[in-house]
Every structure is written in C-alpha cells, then in structure tokens.
Amino acid sequence: MATAGPRRILIVEDERDILDLVRLYLEKEGYRTLSASSGTDALRMIKSDRPDLIVLDLMLPEMDGLEVCKRLRADPQTAMVPIIMLTAKAEESDTIIGLELGADDYVTKPFSPKALVARVKALFRRMERAQEAPARYAYGPLTMDLARHEVKTDGEEVKLTAKEFGLLEHLLRHRGRVLTREVLLDSVWGYDRDVTTRTVDVHVRRLKQKLPFLNDAILSVKSLGYKLKDGDTPA
Ligand code: CA
Q: Which residue among 16, 95, 188, 196 is the one 20 to 30 A from 182 at the CA level?
C-alpha cells in the first residue's frame, strides 16, 4: 500500500501553525502527510512508517534537525531518504546543507507554502530520474557509456577499473545528493567483507587523479561521505 498509494511525507516541525500550513498545502497536492514535533519522534517514525520524503525543521526541541539529518544519513537503512530542511537564515543554509548535513534541499523561513510544494515536487522528480538509470551520462567534459563500459573526457577514453567505474556511475546517477561511505560501499562493493569505508576514500582519490576536473565537482561532506555537484542531464 505504501509503495502504490499516494506518496507520504513526514513533516517535522514543533511550531503548530507552520506544521498545519505545510500539511494543508501538501495534502492539497495529493500527498499524504505524517507529522512529528520533535527530533526523537521523527527518528522513531521514520523507522516505523518509512515516509517517501521528509520536511525537516532545523530548530527542534531535544534533538535539532541537524542531528536528525546526520543520524539518518549515517544509517544505511535511511541514508537515501530525501530531506528538505527548513532553515532560518539563507546565508547559513548553503554551508549546512552542502557540507555538514546531507539534506537534499532547503527552504528558508519565512517561506511560501507554494515554494515548498514546488521544491517537494522537484525533489521527487530528481529521485525518479535517479531510478531510471540512463544508458549514457554527460557531465561537463565527461561522457559515460554504460553499455560499452566506456568513459571519455573531451573525447579521449579514460581507463577505469570496475570499481572506479561503478563508483563514478553511482555518483553520476545520484548527483546533487550526499552519498555516505556506507551507501557507496553497499552499492559498489556489495557484501565484500574485506573492504572498509577507507576503501571508498582511496577510490574517490584515484577517480580524481584520472579525471582531474572531478576535483572541483566531488565535494567531501564532513564526517559523512561525498557529493557530486548537480550538473548536466543524462545524454
Ligand atoms: Ca521549529
């Protein structure tokens, strides 16, 4: 029922007025909503109810949104759940979202509910795009052909190992999202017991050596993992 029915969005906000407003607008768009008013409640509900997306306020009692987000990203079971943060100041948001927290997008308070709904829709579209893996990616000077197992920059072929190829494909597919080391290990290395999260760092370094333009494109996210800047669409 959860997968076939309307998408379910968890709203985490302790200010009743904002919660009600957000809920009203999201339900008007056909989404189902769940709500939590503290970080601890949110974590519990995410585990039990598996929402499709979370609208998470930064300022919460007990445990703030930053901590909730970090915990979700650190747990492979919840690491990929889309999160939109509600933050107080625009200038803080870029740093918090991009480099510390691992949220997918943010909206600065005070916000218009319509703008939030637009962000929610855009994020769902991004998730759908990531699910249908294209046969080919174009990203800056790079093209990646999955069927041919071929990577080129400016038309020149670059030889990658199977794991480097897998890692690059995963980063491209989920560009714009924070991928934790655990998620990358799980998706690229599977259940190989001999690898540790350090393996991911080593391979990211090698990818950057072989494809130097990635030095600016792959962001290291403090204590979490990596993020490839959002860019060109699948070719
Ligand atoms: Ca709040």
A: 95
